[in-house]
Amino acid sequence: MDLRWSLLGLVAFALFVKISRSKDRPASPNNKNNMDLSKPQVGASSSSSSSPSSTHSFTHDVFLSFRGLDTRNNFTSHLHSNLVNKGIRTYIDNDLTRGEDITKELLEAIGGSRISIVVFSANYASSKWCLDELVEIFECEESNQQIVYPIFYKVEPWEIRYQKGQVGKAIARLSKHKDNLEKMDSWKAALRKAADLSGWQIKDGGHEANVIDEIVKHISTKIMRCTPLNVATHPVGIEFSVKDILKLLNVGQDKPHMVGIWGIGGIGKSTLAKAVYNSISNKFEHSCFLANVREESSSSGGLVKLQNNFLKNIERNPPNVENVAKGITLLKQKLSQKKVLLVIDDVDCLGQLEALAAESGWFGPGSKIIITTRDTNCVSPDSTYEVKELNHEDASKLFNCYAFKGDICPDGFFELATEVIHYAKGKFRILLVLEVLGSDLCSKKDKDVWKAALEYYRRCPNKDIQKILQRSYDGLHDQIQEVFLHIACFFKGHEKSYVIDVLQSCDLPKYALEVLVEKALIKIEKNDWIWMHDLIEDMGKEIVRQESPEIGKCSRLWLHEDIREVLEENTGTDKIKAIVLGRGVWNSQSIQLDGGSFTNLKNLQIFEVNGDEMLSGESVDYLPNQLRVLDWSCCSLRSLPVKLTALLTLFFSCAKSEEFQVTFPASAPLPNWFTCRQDAKLDVNGKVINKEHEFCIEIPQNSNWDNKGLALCIQSYSDKPDFPPFLTHLVHINGIKFDENLMSRDEEVWVHYIPFVTVKKRLSESGISSPDMFRVMVRLKEIFIDTERPFGVSWGVHLIEDLEGEGG
């Protein structure tokens, strides 16, 4: 039997289960006849030449400008409905009676919209109101980082550009009125500018629904990309630095240009890069911020992943990159004609730049590339901005924001705060230190405590920043410290929900994340991923290293060589709590397991292997009873040293109120304590008897549905492991089909856990009211088996009560 199960969906034997759900995804309409977004109808996207405001807030995502007579009750109405259904905040003017001038409300709506969509139709230019709207739209496009898209609805772009055909006739009629003469030039200029923008054209007989779908998809993507990056909790003192970097970038010039932002770790390079990116990203056809490049590229396939991420930001249907060399070729091909803003954050070697942006010649006219780094070898000395430390005034504001939750220092603390700021600036010049020290002292209201803290800081050797940062760690409760060390050693850059699952599996509090955020030791990024500054990460890992000079007596292992020593030489002890292998490692020699690899690891709670062929060996004699998170992709073991009874006991004891399925190996029949169980058997002629069985589970009338669940279990096994049976099992509950499962492996257990509320809901959807009894029918649908190779099947249904889930 070959159990390459990636632990088959089982993480932490059920304490931590990977849940799969199938989601229906509607296919995108494809209309090749009337529109191709990758080929603009007229020209390039608009961009502003003025300096934009990075602080402008938008009340709407989209403003619709249209001629009501032509499109209100057809195209524009359908477009508006589709935008709103997509969750896009869209303003549409439904006032059918208009005066001579645009209302204040309409002016505010135009100015408060991130994107304006102008629906040009046959009679658009006959309306002074529409033309005034168009002028206002372009004024806001210039001043507020706004984007304009034209839709040419049954008119040609050249008619708008040159005011010909019906458009020309409309303009001619308006020009006969003296009151319109002053506006005529601005109207014509706005029409010409709109006609030169990329947009969509709909001809007579075109498939409007398909075009609307494409527009909504494009606008949705654009809004997501236009969403500004989170710069900093307290962005103090960055305005002048941003202006200096913008001067270096020469944003108004067509020549592609690279600029480096250089400085020591923690001084604010990434913060400045984000602020610059937010201020000018709207000027570019495409924009991309590649964060944490040093860390991302260190993992197996990391550079390829970064190349793919970059391509996704510049291509509508990007090709998939499989290796760095191919990625370089594709990027050079795709970038050459595009105006791109690219930020490559935290570069530490030239190889990263060679894979992502070796030279400005890769990029199209007007492109700008920003590189943040601590290494001057990675940037050009002619276009490098050195990040300076904050002046005293700004440093005081930043410290006060963290220490006093405001930019003003309260009475009685001014001298103490000034001493802390002078200390931090004089010794470290790092914004991170001000942030951490301020957060550390935030809850301290006693001046004597401040004085003691300052004395502690002064005792630390010059440049010994880790001891300064460790003070925040030392002040945490024991369980919070455990969470901090887990994140520092293993889970930086992981999704918050994943980390919470791990913590709860290990009986650690999820509120610990809130505490660590408050202490400025971690941050939760906008995508809900956990971020930690590398100086703090290093501090956490150093705490673990200092636990013992012997690797086997440290609480956490993450380096390949350390893990190899412990598992191959059996030098581990009960001090080890967690082992995570594979992040940041590739082309390393496989670690060879033997029977005693885990024997000494009595208190191991977390064991993760990320990557193929990291470990080899067919069996181990022991896995710790304390193990709570087991995530082992491409596992080489042919069996687990854990009885099925123990696995299922652990599995069911931790079942929650959410449905999931899981498969794992086992080498024993379902335990006899199951609520109901039945074995399928062979007779003497090799024929299968009792191919089906019905289980009945009674539910008392006054039962709490929310507090119970149903576990369906099927196990197959064969005496000939090289020729496992292929068995399709059908599961019906009260006549309604719930599962059809093909099992083709020997000694495998499949479990489908369903909360009763879910069972009840599905039955109700099929017209069956709340039953007082569940009848579970399990049946073999197909059998492909040689009678000379005996097999067995066990079916089980188990009633689980007193769940700790949402309903319990």
Provide the structure class: alpha/beta
Question: How can the largest sheet be summarized?
Answer: 6 strands, antiparallel
Strand order of the largest sheet: 19-26-23-28-20-21
Strand content: 15-25%
Number of strands: 28
Q: Give me the number of helical elements.
A: 26
Unreliable runs, pLDDT <50, ≥5 residues? 1-55, 803-808
Average pLDDT works out at 78
Terminus-to-terminus distance? 40 Å
- Helix residue percentage: 25-40%
Shape: globular
Rg calculated over all Cα atoms: 32 Å
Would you mind describing this structure in some detail?
The longest helix has 19 residues, at 208-226. The radius of gyration is 32 Å and the shape is globular. With 808 residues, it is α/β, with parallel strands linked by helices. The strands form seven sheets. A six-stranded antiparallel beta sheet has the order 19-26-23-28-20-21. The chain has a five-stranded parallel beta sheet with strand order 2-1-3-4-5, sandwiched between helices. Strands 7-8-9-6-10 form a five-stranded parallel beta sheet, sandwiched between helices. The chain is built from 26 helices and 28 strands.
Summarize the SSE layout with pairings.
Elements: E1 60-66, H1 68-71, H2 75-85, E2 90-91, H3 104-111, E3 113-120, H4 128-143, E4 147-153, H5 157-162, H6 165-175, H7 181-195, E5 200-202, H8 208-226, H9 239-249, E6 257-262, H10 269-280, E7 286-290, H11 293-298, H12 302-314, H13 324-335, E8 340-347, H14 350-356, E9 368-373, E10 384-386, H15 392-403, H16 414-427, H17 431-441, H18 447-459, H19 465-474, H20 478-491, H21 496-505, H22 512-518, E11 523-524, E12 530-531, H23 534-545, E13 556-557, H24 560-569, E14 578-581, E15 591-592, E16 606-609, E17 615-616, E18 629-632, H25 644-653, E19 660-665, E20 676-682, E21 688-689, E22 692-698, E23 708-718, E24 726-733, E25 736-743, E26 748-755, H26 756-765, E27 773-784, E28 791-801
Parallel strand pairs: 1-2, 1-3, 3-4, 4-5, 6-9, 6-10, 7-8, 8-9, 13-14, 14-16, 15-17, 16-18
Antiparallel strand pairs: 11-12, 19-26, 20-21, 20-28, 22-27, 23-26, 23-28, 24-25, 24-27
